[in-house]
Write a structure and sequence with these properties.
Length: about 450
Amino acid sequence: MSNSSSNSFPDPAEIAKDHGKPYPPQEQGLGGTPDVIPDVPTCAVFLFLFLLAAAGHMGLFRINLSRGKKFVLSGMMFGFCFTRIMATLLRIVWSVYPKSVKIGLAAMIFVYAGIILLFIANLFFTQRLVRAQHPHVGWSKPFSIALPILLFIIIGSIIALIVGVIYSFYTLNEESLSAIRDIQIYGETLYAIVAFLPIPIVLISCAGRYFNKNRRTVDKFGSGKMRSKVAIILISAFFLDLGACWRAATLYLPVTASTNPQTPWYFTKPCFYVFNFGIEICVTFAWLALRIDKRFFIPNGAKGPYSYAGGFTFAGEPGNEKIALGNRDSMRHLTGSQASGFGGSGRVSWGGSRASLGHSSRVSWGGISREDVSTGLGEDGFQPVPYGAFEEDDPQGTTAADVGVSGAEAEMGWDPRSGRWALRPVSSTVHLARPTTARSAV
């Protein structure tokens, strides 16, 4: 660190020593120490915006929960907004008391701790997209354990980063400060890598599906087109990585003493607000407006290839939702016998769990759908969504709507030979007419 003998500004180490613990920073950082103008009005605007975003995401979380749809990522977005509310509040207080090192330290911690939640959410979106486009690859053990391992690394790195930042305010040892700076460089570089990961993963997944001539049906999930989901992930990853790369790049540049009256342009306040709060609030509101809770929703308990199934849930799986049906009717046809189904052919099984679907030579029934069961165009332009109901002897078949179910509960079966879903009505609060042979079988 430069000292007063070779520079026109005081030695920051001497000032820190005279100040006492916690010591003020000895080098400049992105945004610097806030001032009443322009930081207070700027932070007040961001505070208001993040309050609105937090209310929006928590409101959607509560509404979905009341409808039996638990979209945890909305809760995660609320948690992120909370960290930003605290960060903006602390910067406002810090601007009023600029010499308070403790307030500055708290503000820095909340800035460090929040952004990673957006990266993690985008990784979950990416994982769901890959599992929808390539079910057997996306649900394979290597791909399935990759995200938990990455989350473990991220959490450990965040803890190390926060501990390092706190310790830097309580030591003047140059070797310790140098090691802490290395930790900061590592942490910000990891942030940049994690923010960038969805881009190559999604591009490879889409390219693999496009060039694979033997590709199977997309395991459609949520609402909206698959190309819209791809666009949301890629655009979000681009801007989130832009901010992460900016923060990482400033740490690789030469150190500037905190007592130096000249602040490099890349450390200025506009850069801080644009590449931190500015990008984050845009992504947060975009996800809220685009209803990620609908687009990226998957059934509770979904596990294994083709378990998203356009909103289907399966019997016998943890977290299986049965809120739309009564307790008695929700269990009917979902567990128990393997009696024959339509036509008394003995080739349609009832109540089979999804674990056995891929190994059976007959249609296995055992799930319910509360999504619209009318026929529509699929993601690739020619698949019906949900896939048209059929019997093994009647490939054309009819949709569930044709047999009395209009946009509500239908039971699902998987035909491993055709690789498609079959639909049939299930008993609910309204007793639907069934073929005589099927009624006697149940």
